[in-house]
Amino acid sequence: MKIIMLGAPGAGKGTQAKMIADKYGVPHISTGDIFRANIKNGTELGMEAKKYMDQGLLVPDELTVRILLDRVAQDDCKNGYVLDGFPRTIPQAEVLDSELTKLGDHIDYAINVDVPDENIVKRMSGRRACLTCGATYHIEHVPPKKEGICDVCGSELVLRDDDKPETVKNRLNVYHEQTQPLIDFYTEKGVLKTVDGTVPMEEVFAAITAILG
Ligand code: AP5
Ligand code: ZN
Q: For binding ATP, which residues are annotated in this chain's numbering (predicted)?
């Protein structure tokens, strides 16, 4: 099963993608996590991506597409995957589509997690992230067992550089301009499913599993 998660920054794509990956036994692939891991490790790719991410801008398509296609070509993706944060532009979606078509394959579902802009800024300021293992928490909704420490790997939790309110506003603008058109793109392909992302995460997940079966 090949699934794409769509939605504004902070809509809960990553939260739901991890739950889907666990339940259906497919890898969770987040381009944002790949970039953040590279930044943490000080790689050349990380340094390049950071220039854009810190301003709330998208990393150029060429770089992002290359990384994503390398990742989905790995063995663990044979039976499917859940993509979180990719595609984010029409050109990215077109490349993915044509690569899958070459393999006689296609995306099964594009799940749009719908959350209005007003809720987003509040969510982001409460998010805490583990840059070591990618786990995500929220100071009110999903607190870690021990304040400031990742339950999974024991690393320190941080407010992401791009979760500061000024940057979140830029990310929302970029989302509306460049990513929202993908809703029409996947509607036309007949695979778009929208779920309400404002309800508690277990309820969002129940709506998603009702779609995926
Ligand atoms: P990326 O990491 O993909 O960020 P994003 O899309 O902005 O998404 P987020 O990770 O911020 O949010 P999310 O929807 O996953 O929400 P989460 O589950 O964490 O990308 C970062 C940057 O990398 C981009 O700005 C860009 O520069 C670059 N990039 C990445 N991919 C790219 C691409 N394809 N092309 C170009 N550039 C790219 O939830 C948010 C918070 O809310 C958490 O604290 C969570 O605990 C909480 N929460 C979740 N669900 C609920 C709920 N139902 N109720 C209450 N709280 C909830
Ligand atoms: Zn961790």
A: 10-15, 127, 136-137, 199
